[in-house]
Amino acid sequence: MTATKPFKERGISAELPTFLAVDFFCGAGGTTHGLIDSGGYVMAGIDKDGRCRETYVENNVNRTLDGAKVKFLNRDIFPATDDYPDGEQALLEDELDEMIGDCRRDAPGVPLLFAICAPCQPFTKLSKKELSDDRKAGRERDSNLLQEAAKFVARFRPEMVLSENVRGIRDPKYGGVWNEFKKTLEALGYIAGSRVVCTSKFGVPQFRRRSILVAVRKELLRDECVSEDGELIVPECDPNSETVTVRQAIGGLPAMVAGAQHPTVPNHKTRTLSELNLKRIAAALPGKPNSYMENTEHGDLSLACHRKVNAKLKVRCFTDVYTRMSPDRPSPTITTKCHSISNGRFGHYDTKQLRGISLREAAILQSFPKDYIFYPENAIDPVARMIGNAVPPRLAKYFSDYLVGSLSGTEAAR
Questions:
Q1: 125-to-130, 174, 176, 323 alpha-carbon distances in Å
Q2: Cys-Cys crosslink for 48: which of 76, 83, 254, 374, Cβ 3.0 to 4.6 Å?
Q3: What is residue 391's DSSP assignment?
């Protein structure tokens, strides 16, 4: 590979970033956007799902060094084997070797951060009985993604590592992959720390419990960032942020009806509703459970399968489906089904609007800025999947700020 000329030789007046970064498993770019907001220069986002490329590249432009759009590397990080010939680990290593070498030359002394937020699907509650044999094999392979990413940590020795995943990844039933990843980083000379946090305590207008793991090379870590048991302290909140409610976050957006797409607000698009579901959402009150369905003007609108389970268990189950969000609290967890009122408390809080939340509203509740456009703009399911799978940018910004501040001798530390 041929090295790129330094920025100065290309006539570029370069502002140095606070840190350099690579975003593994970047998806639609939530982590990358937070890293850029934190003053970082993101060299590349890596993901094997090429459907995220346009959304990722068009929304993520560096503000330092060359001010370029972040590169999207459509790569599979597994090594190629006879059983799995699609692996591209060696190719990816060569590409990163060139990128990191060029940026370290142009930004000497600037620390490097690896964001490693592996797909959460192997650690969710979806029953494996619902999966095809191929998908089961993929899930099993993906459960090793963290250890494969650790090989890149060993190769490039970034000063900092940031990882985020679902709360359940810490459960021993998933093979201890989270703890093993932490132990691997520690064996490589990092001091690491992990805890479960709620995004609502970091200024994200959403209750979203996530596992956070942060690590810094041992020789670079400030003493005051180490706990009594020798781990890197992981903050449980951002002391400078306030709780943001649903009304504060999305209350200013134009009113919509089900199945509509706003002509000027990007991704302000809602899913259609059947006549029955329109009757259900019309009877729903903000922040209340779905017990309302038993006594509507149209009779009992509860699902027959739910009535059967409720009667058998003698307790009401599935109380969040076909309900509206509370306007005065952060939203519930935004999932890949956030556009569907039958999949959770995703009804709009305004009782005059008979609909679920729009994709734009879901993105804002994930802390994406209002001008972050998801492609294709006329799609529902693919965009909802990108939004629900994303790391909230505000969460990524906070923890990248924190990691830089934990380094001894950095401007942030002083």
A1: 11, 11, 16, 22
A2: 76
A3: P
**How would you classify the pairing of strands 190-198 and 209-217?**
antiparallel
Rounded to whole angstroms, the Cα distance separating 252 from 66 reads 36
The CA–CA distances, whole Å, from 353 to 82, 98, 214, 264, 357 equal 55, 52, 42, 19, 10
Give the single-character DSSP code of 184. Answer: H
pLDDT tens, residue by residue, 259-286: 999 999 999 999 999 999 999 999 999 9
Q: Where are the domains of the chain?
A: 17-243+392-405
Opening angle at CA 313, ends 347 and 340, nearest 5:
20
**What confidence tens digit (pLDDT) does each residue in 103-119 have?**
999 999 999 999 999 98
The C-alpha atoms of residue 113 and residue 161 are separated, in whole angstroms, by 6
Phi, psi dihedrals of residue 369, rounded to the nearest 5°: -70, 160
Q: Where are the alpha helices (DSSP H) in 67-195?
A: 89-106, 133-142, 145-156, 177-187
- Beta-bridge mates of residue 69: 61
Q: Is the CATH number 3.40.50.300 carried by domain 17-243+392-405?
A: no
User: What tokens appear for 170 in the block?
Assistant: 């810490």
SS3 assignment, position 232? strand
Which amino acid makes up residue 296? T
Q: What tokens were used for 47?
A: 């993901």
